[in-house]
């Protein structure tokens, strides 16, 4: 799938960047991150495309977490949910290719 330039999450418009913060994210050993103040999602551009897709889904889960939960969900929970959800969508042909 082509990662979109922006996504609306519960009325908040997040701008998505691929490759804007590669060095910074790499130094933190991260594939991506979301900023709930700036309403941005950054995904590393030097990842394989499938890893960019999974990271995009992972960061979407973090935006949902910030929007509806009072407490932070453990990173391992988000990681596990995004990996399994991505695999389910991909393996069943429900993740758009392109």
Please give a quick description of this structure.
With 98 residues, this protein is α+β, with helices and mostly antiparallel strands. The protein has helices at 22-27, 49-68, 75-91, and strands at residues 6-9, 12-18, 32-35, 40-43.
Q: What features would you describe in this structure?
A:
The chain has 98 residues and is of the alpha+beta class. The protein has 3 helices and 4 strands; from the N terminus they run ββαββαα. The protein has helices at 22-27, 49-68, 75-91; strands spanning 6-9, 12-18, 32-35, 40-43. β1 and β2 (12-18) form a beta hairpin. The chain is globular, with a radius of gyration of 13 Å. The protein starts with 5 loop residues before the first strand and ends in a 7-residue tail after the last helix. The mean pLDDT is 89.
């Amino acid at each position: 799938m082509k990662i979109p330039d922006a996504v609306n999450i519960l009325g908040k418009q997040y701008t998505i960047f691929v490759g804007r913060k590669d060095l910074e994210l790499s130094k933190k050993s991260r594939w991506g991150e979301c900023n709930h103040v700036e309403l941005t999602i950054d995904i590393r551009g030097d990842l394989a495309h499938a890893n960019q897709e999974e990271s995009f889904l992972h960061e979407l889960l973090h935006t949902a977490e910030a929007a509806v939960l009072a407490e932070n969900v453990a990173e391992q929970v988000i990681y596990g949910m995004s990996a399994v959800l991505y695999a389910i969508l991909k393996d069943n042909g429900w993740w758009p290719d392109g």
